[in-house]
Structures are given as structure tokens and as C-alpha cells.
Amino acid sequence: MLELVNLKKAFGSHVVLDDISLTVPTGEIVSILGPSGCGKTTLLNVILGLTELTSGKIIYDGVDLSSVPMKKRGFNIVFQDFALFPNLNAYDNIVYGLRNNKNASTPAEVNDLIDLLNLREHLSKRIDELSGGQKQRVAIARTLVMKPKVLLLDEPLSALDGLIKESIKERIKTIARQFNLTTIIVTHDPEEALSLSDRVLILNNGKVAQYAEPKTIIHAPESSFIKDFILKQLMIKRDNIFRLFDSTMPAVPAMSYMQTAAASA
């Protein structure tokens, strides 16, 4: 379990995160959502250990990691731009971190991940030969082979469109469930957050506006800010998202089309 306790981050006199407290049960997917400048990326970097806290605690399975260096926390991140090595092929990117870490994945486990992410036919390709969805899957595989305790994703779907985006969403869900992997995602897209996550953390001006299950945010928003930021945007896409949380609407069609999208994602 990951616990954030009274987190504060200030750059000089500018407070970016102000008294952030929440608990993330092991294996859950949590999205961090909010307008530009609300502190989403700073919070992700604080959890990772890339940015030092001003005050507060980050606790994982009862151990205080607040002062533990990033490399020793056991968390790992997939950056928005994938950060793949262009001089290496897909396979060499995936296994790059294993050379100096004997406690990470075995060759058999690497092969299982390659199959789970449907990457086998792309292993020998250069990075510039891969589609956006394929690059995303390689970046996820490279992170997962290191067996992170917590997986952090920074805008993982922002560069993807349509069926490819839906395919990656389903893969993220599968990974979190199969590996019981706590997953934290930064996103600017309310529909993405609500359809992908077990819980959503909404930030506003560095503070927690609401932290709840998607259906609670839809049916019981705690402030006018949430109504304005979330619900007005979602009303435009009502057929896509409200069916997930409204039993009076017809069921969402089966996702069998995902198999077709997966091949090109």
C-alpha cells in the first residue's frame, strides 16, 4: 500500500503541493487529474523521488521512503516521450536495465512480457520504425522488466488516437491486474482518467479537490470546480463515458474490436 501523508512541495515562496494526503491500495490504478499548473507532474516526481519534498511523508508497505533516493525506492516511470534509445532496437531497449540488476526479470519473464504486450514481431525493429503505440508498449515493457513496486505513467495516451489509445488503456488495466501492480497515471483527460482508473485524484491549485472512485465523482462531485472541470467536458462525450457509471443507459458494446487495434498499436 502506498500512503501520501501531508505532502507539501514549495519552490521558494511558491507552494505547488499543499497538504496532499491519500492512500493507494496495492494493485489499484489511480489517475492524477487536473488543469494545467495544478501540480500533477510535481506530485508524480515527488512520489518517484525525482523531486525532493518540502515536508510530509511517502510510505510504502509501512516503510517511510521520504528521504530514500529515487534509485532505491523501487518505483519506475514511463515518460510521456517514451525516452527510448534510438540507437538500440526494440528488444535491446526492453532489456537495457537488466545488465546491472540481477534481481529483475529472468529471460522467461522477459519473454512472457513480450508476449503480453504483443511485441514479438517488432523486437528487431529500430525505434524509428515503430508506431506510437508500439513505442509505448516497448517503454512499458522496459519498465516492467525491472519489477517496479509502483508503476508511474506520465500522460501515457496523449500521443495516441482512437483504437490505438483504447488498446493501450486495456493493456495498462491487464498489467495492473495480472501483476497486482500499483499504477499511478498523470493525465489531463477526464474521460481517460474515469474510464481507466479505480480511483481518481483531482487536484486544484495544489490541493486535493476530490479523491474517489469514478462513479462517485460522476454522481457526487464535491465542488463547483469539479462540476465545471469534469462534468462539462464529459457531457460532450456522454455516450462514451456515462454508460460506465449509469445503469439506466445501454451497456457499452463488447471490446472485441480491441484485438484488431492491438495489432497496429
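The above is record 1. Record 2 follows with the same two-line structure.
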Amino acid sequence: MLKKLKSLFVVEDETNKEGQAKANPAAPKAQAKSAPTAPKIKVDTTPIPKGEGKPDEKFINRLLEALEEANLEGFDYLEYKQSLQSIDDMNMDEATMFKSSLAMAKTMGGTPEKLISSAQHYIGVLQKEEKKFQDALTNQQQKVVAGRQESIAKMEASIDSKQKRIEELKAEITKEQEALAQTKKAADNDASKIHLTKTGFYAAYHIVVDQINADLEKMKKHF
């Protein structure tokens, strides 16, 4: 069923057309302070605009699995989508194609109202998946980014204290400065990976949602 859903939404072709995701720019390096303050964590769950990023296969699969799990009984939007695809190569104009598929749907108990409401149902399913993703993303950002920033703040405080000591502590300060640089680099890498994961989800999300929304508009137009 998952493979069939992929074919309905032409996910595999769209995936190859998307551009590479853009990583977040590196965070500015913090300056040494005499009294470091606690790190402030800003969790960004703003949806990625359509067209940015490369769809992640695992997110495409999860979104389509969610549709499969929420598949309504009887002839609904998903079956209608399949019938549209089956006549797509018959060189019909759009209105004729949608009306012909509707005629076929009616023989199986489908109605314009049921097709539209079921398409809206699947949009709701995908929006719930988006909410789950945002919650997971928030937890990941708080856990990973906050942990790194806390480490950076502690190291900066230690360096600031040791810089006031006598000459024999310079070697220890240098060692911790190197560790600080590595930790900042790791923090930047973590933030970039999180952003890449986010762009992958939204690229996949837009592919599926846009096709359903497009079909909704066409159904409303032609029914």
C-alpha cells in the first residue's frame, strides 16, 4: 500500500527535483566575559518554505504511512486519486478527467462531498504529523543545542578565571581554549544537522500536502 501511495503522489520523481537543503549559518563566536550569563535557548519550529531543502525518504514514508493508517473505509479521496492516475495518459483535458473519475467513483459509492471531506481528512492527518514533528524537533533542540551552549558557557567561565592566574597556568588555558573551539564547532554542526532534518521533513510535507490541496481545488472546481 505504501508503494502505491508513493506512485499516486509521484514522490520519488519530486524528490529528485528538489535542491540540496541549506544549513543554518554558523552561530557567532562568544567573547570571553567576566560574568557569563546562562545560555538562552530559542527553539525555532517555523515551517520551512516550500521549495527549500531536499525531501527525506524516511519522512516521505512516514507521511504516507500516516495516510495509510488513517485510510477511510469505502471509496474516498485516495481511491479517487488512484482512478485519476489510471486515466492520466488518455489525453483528456483536466475537467473531463476529473468528471470521468467522479463518474467512476459514483458507481462505487463515492460522492463529491465524500471525496472532498476525505481529502480534507487526510490534510488533517498530515497536519497532525507536522505537530508531532515540531514537538520532537523542540525536544531535540532543547536537549542538543542547550547542552552544547551550557558546556560553552562553563568553559568560557573557566577560561576567564584561569587567564587571571600566573604564567604556569597558560598551558592549561591553551588546552581549554582548544576544547572550547571543538565544542563550538560541534554545536554548529549539531544545529546544521537539525536544520537539515527540518528542511527534509518540510520538503516531503509540501510534496504530499500540495498535491492533495491541488486536487481539492480541482474537485471543488469541477464537481
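Residues 57-222 form one domain.
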